[in-house]
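2024-03-11 09:14:02 DEBUG pipeline.ingest accepted 1 chain
2024-03-11 09:14:02 DEBUG pipeline.ingest length=553
2024-03-11 09:14:03 DEBUG pipeline.predict start
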Amino acid sequence: MDAQTIMSLGLIIATFALYIGISIFNRARATSDFYVAARGVPPVWNGMAIGGDWMSAASYIGMAGTVMALGYDGLAYIMGWTGGYLLLTFLLAPQLRKYGRYTVPEFIGDRYMNNTARLIAAIATLIISFTYIIGQLSGSGVVIGRILSIPAMYGTMIGVVVIAIYATLGGMKSVTWTQVAQYMILIVAYIIPIVFMSLQVTGNPLPWLTYGNVIDEIGAIDRELGLSEYFAPFAESEKSQFLALMFTLMVGAASLPHVIVRFFTVATMKAARWSGAWALLFIGLLYLSAPAYAAFSRFILMTRIAGQPIDQLPAWSENWINIGLLKIADQDGDGMLDWTEIEVSPDMVVMATPEIANLGIFVIGLMAAGAMAAALSTAGGLLVTISSSFAHDIYYRLINPQASDQKRLKAGRIVMILATVVAGVVALDPPGVITQIVAWAFALAGGTFFPVLVLGVWWRRMNAAGAIAGMLVGLGTTLTYIFLALSGVTLFGIIDTGAGIFGVPLNFLACIIASKMTEPPAQHLQDDVTDLRYPEQMTYKDGEVWINDGTRN
């Protein structure tokens, strides 16, 4: 075992020990601890936990690689994912927090007073979260596989064991504080390499100010090679796909059950808004860095790897070739490696960058620890969501309403372990690259939940029939289009990752038509919707707004 492997493994083991220690210290002892951390998380820490929850393997490992591969067209991921947080913070999070439930299916079931709607929402949550967690486990396999120089599938198996241990110990309470630690580790690990890369390439330690000049140089190299320029708009995809993907990611980000539940862990509506604001700041640190990563990595590959004798490539390339994420071929037989003869998987770009730039074994190990933090943080939140959807929304609310706290916690932990193992089996041979798999989860979340949540909060006339019709139509349409697109059947140039553009409008339409064709909801449910628009210190009742000290406003 070489020094680099020992360093990487040591840092990862140290961080694993930290996460498990935090989980043991914050172990859940009641259902409110397990599902919403007893609603006692301060906004700034909750914002950081949201950042950790959000910075999944797709963001950390896959985003920069996707931008490197797609250029301008890859920016749809950054704009879509960031824009979705604005929708969530302003349209949904404070109102859902005031309603005071544990989960998204519970809100839907109680808002519409319908157990069928609750069951559909719970099943959809399981599908969405299961899809999402496959991407996280696949990312952990990439990291561990590279460190131990083993196939990614064996790395995935190791990741499954670690995630199953720490997530089942403490539920949302422990996951919250491990996510805070994971965010700190991953953001430091993400920024340090890019600062050194900027110094190495431009002499300036501020990559956010310098990568524009590097892009100009890449453009010149592209023109020389006769390639589409790196940041030429819509060179790698149709404009319709760009817009569809951005829309899908925005509505999906505002509808992901495991993200929404993070806003249930604070005490007030105001705290929920501030959590969103802090989260945008913490997320922005990474998202503003991803394009710089893409530019610097592409520049170094084009200028230091391409054009070299194929039998004199640096040692790091062999490691990535061995695990199947880098492919090279001397297609013209001249003994030199041309840029067009290099096939780089988007999933390796960030992880390989410290090696490509020769930044030293500590930075390489730190990057590996950060990548594992990203995969584990999101996986933990997803497992809590999967657990609560079954144990709370299906088992407790529908099957056994007399279940004790201990029975509910036991059921939740069993489901967590089973979900981790099954998702891990699927992730052994993932159905796509990490960002693609995660985009499917966003499409399903937006297509199923966005209209039902928005209309449930802002339209008094919305009823159970509308919610059921909307979720079934939206989920069915989105799933159908994903499978059709994967088989080669597309509309308007929109591929599988943009499926939400079809599911969401049809969901809205189904909600409105079904609600209009059936009886309006009970008056107290309509009053509940109006009440959600006022701060906690005010209550809407019998057509009047009351201050909660008993006086009329």
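2024-03-11 09:14:41 DEBUG pipeline.report The mean pLDDT is 80.
2024-03-11 09:14:41 DEBUG pipeline.predict end
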